[in-house]
Design a protein that fits this description.
This protein has 291 residues and is mainly α. It is 38% helix and 7% strand.
């Protein structure tokens, strides 16, 4: 006799291990995470587990990398914009960006615009080491910018700080740095490097050095080999060759009392010093008593 089993499903159902068996997962990993997933159809970003489960990146760098990959092309991801968006301060965000850059998830290069302005081009890579050969790449230079992986930029060493960093002093120091390229074209600095070095130059100017003397100290005996990091060389010289403060000058002593010429007293013929002729002190006292 042909009897239908009401408890049997009419069709076989496919199951994905780890997703359709939450009870089985709970038994295999007590206390572990249980996923309650819904398939996204709009407003989602595909991010590789090589980033989300990276073994060397910090949690902040992983989260920041996921956020950057979810942004549209052209979105601002500079430190100022990210600090305004997230509660972490600029120091932590800058460190996270350096982590992503060191592991290939970000590539940052400085380029000069046709008007002479220095800008930073940032490329986000969702698969470090992958060379993009797609037909929709806009141009050959852009393909090279995406494919090439420049080494992480080393930070400049600290420079001396002026005791009184007035705007005028910093402006003079910045102008001095901008003019170094006239002495040697290899000393062309970016705006970021000039801003870092300007306080060091201001500290020199505070010590009674003229701009010409500072310029000579920074540009003399330059190596003949190509300067790969001119800003690093200048930062080292500003710190290592900082002159001592000028010697202390005591205030000038007050001028001595004036020495008046000798006069002959009209009353007693005694000599006394006075700016004008007349009577000596004793004769003036006698006159006052007689009055």
């Amino acid at each position: 006799m042909d009897t239908e089993n009401p408890s049997a499903p009419p069709h076989a159902q496919s199951r994905i291990p780890g997703k359709n068996h939450p009870h089985r997962d709970r038994q295999a990993h007590p206390g572990g995470v249980i996923h309650d997933n819904v398939r996204h159809t709009t407003h989602f970003t595909v991010i590789g587990n090589h980033l989300t489960q990276h073994g060397e990146l910090s949690l902040l760098a992983i989260g920041l990398g996921c956020h950057i990959q979810s942004l549209p092309t052209g979105a601002a991801i500079d430190i100022k914009s990210l600090t305004a968006r997230f509660p972490e301060g600029p120091t932590r965000i800058a460190a996270a960006l350096r982590e992503l850059e060191a592991h290939g998830y970000l590539r940052r290069t400085r380029e000069r615009t046709p008007v002479g302005r220095i800008v930073t081009r940032t490329v986000s890579c969702n698969m470090p080491g992958h060379r993009d050969t797609g037909a929709d790449t806009p141009s050959r230079p852009a393909r090279r910018a995406v494919a090439d992986k420049p080494p992480p930029r080393k930070l400049l060493s600290a420079v001396p700080q002026p005791a009184h960093p007035s705007p005028t002093l910093i402006r003079t120091a910045t102008d001095l740095l901008a003019g170094l390229r006239r002495t040697d074209p290899r000393l062309l600095l970016s705006a970021t490097d000039a801003a870092h070095l300007a306080p060091g130059v201001a500290a020199w100017l505070e010590r009674d050095l003229t701009p010409t003397a500072v310029r000579h100290a920074l540009t003399r005996d330059l190596p003949e080999d190509p300067l790969r990091r001119p800003a690093a060389l200048l930062a080292h010289r500003l710190a290592a060759q900082l002159p001592p403060p000028p010697p202390f000058r005591a205030p000038d002593p007050p001028p001595p009392d004036p020495r008046h010429p000798l006069q002959t007293c009209d009353g007693c013929d005694r000599a006394f010093r006075s700016p004008i002729p007349g009577r000596c002190r004793d004769c003036r006292s006698d006159l006052l008593e007689a009055a």
